[in-house]
Amino acid sequence: LTCQVCLSHSKSLSDEENLKVFGKCNNPNGHGHNYKVIVTVRGEIDPVSGMVMNLTDLKEYMQEAIMEPLDHKNLDKDVPYFSEVVSTTENIAVFIWDSLQKLLPQGMLYKVEVHETEQNVVVYKGEESMVK
């Protein structure tokens, strides 16, 4: 997933507060990222296929929920969700979770990981979340 411009800048904060919260990533005009997204599903293993889910189906869901709306986009200008939500990695993970939840069979989505860098990883499991 390549995000051409992400805005680590909140309209509700002053310039000084934005700099303190977002550090070097703060830029009212945005900056770019290449994210790595890992989706984990869970469920019963089908005795015939030996899989929890056909990977071809999962790839199609990920294409629709992640790549089509987000890849090579200016998140803050091209994705309506981010017109009111700051495009942090945490909020990107929530967006991906919510988008996949609409497509996958209920209860199958287990976790979404969004890697901004090797050191900055967001893990989101619906209501449970953590930042590594």
TrEMBL record:
Record GO biological process: tetrahydrobiopterin biosynthetic process
Assigned GO CC terms: mitochondrion
Pfam families: PTPS (PF01242)
Keyword Metal-binding found: yes
Stored Gene3D superfamilies: 6-pyruvoyl tetrahydropterin synthase/QueD
Listed pathway(s): Cofactor biosynthesis; tetrahydrobiopterin biosynthesis; tetrahydrobiopterin from 7,8-dihydroneopterin triphosphate: step 1/3
Cofactor needs: Zn(2+)
Entry's Gene Ontology molecular function annotations: 6-pyruvoyltetrahydropterin synthase activity; metal ion binding
EC number: 4.2.3.12
Alphabetically ordered keywords of this record: Lyase, Metal-binding, Tetrahydrobiopterin biosynthesis, Zinc
Family affiliation: Belongs to the PTPS family.
Protein name per Swiss-Prot or TrEMBL: 6-pyruvoyl tetrahydrobiopterin synthase
Lineage: Eukaryota, Metazoa, Chordata, Craniata, Vertebrata
